[in-house]
Amino acid sequence: MLHRFKFVLAFALMGLGGISQAALFEDDDARRAILELRQKLDLTNKNFEASQQNFKLQLEENSVNQVATRRALLDLQNQIESLKSELSVLRGANEQLLRELANLQIKQKDILQSVDTRLTKFEPVSVVMDGLSFQAEPAEKKEFDAALIVFRSGDFAGAQASLLNFLRRYPTSGYASSSLFWIGNAQYASKDYKESIINFRKLLSIAPQHARAAEAMLAISNCLVELKDLKGAKKTMEELISAYPASEAAQTAKERMARMR
Length: 261
Hints:
Elements: H1 2-17, H2 21-26, H3 28-122, E1 125-129, E2 132-136, H4 138-152, H5 156-169, H6 176-189, H7 193-206, H8 213-226, H9 230-243, H10 248-260
Antiparallel strand pairs: 1-2
């Protein structure tokens, strides 16, 4: 476009040259006009070149900006994909943690139930034995009940050993007075009358209001009869009738004393 403009301008100048050159160059106005026209041409050319250069710079700048924008978009897309990947991993980890938490809660519940069950085995239980109410350890109750089962099976020696061991293990047990009663009976059944009397008297000493106290006194009189101590047996029955007049043992003692006369 610029070359075409230059060519037209040169052609015009050549045409002007065909007019009387002498007259033209003598005319100062014409000369100034040509100079101004050339100046304008140079300025236009310079402006055009400057505009063209600016346009090229803008194109290059736009191209650079586009590349930078594309790179920025690409980086952003990569970051988004990376975040999506990390989010997927985190979701998976969260689901795994939730599963592990659920499993831990189940295990914790099982452990707590197991601990409760174990603790229940050691928690005291309420017991009523021979009119007495007291608290006993589960193992304590189990051991005493087992000893009575041995006694009722007829194994009096085994019952005596079990009950004596029980008293050594639980000397302050609520079963202590009842244990002495059954030890005395086991010894009586084994014809160990002297030891039987000792344990029945221990019962009367520590628990004179025991539900089986009257029976214990009657058993003492029976042991004394077996030992040929009729005087002592009679005295014991008199004490029985005096201490426990409304008991069945006292009535039995009265009948025996009547036969002894």
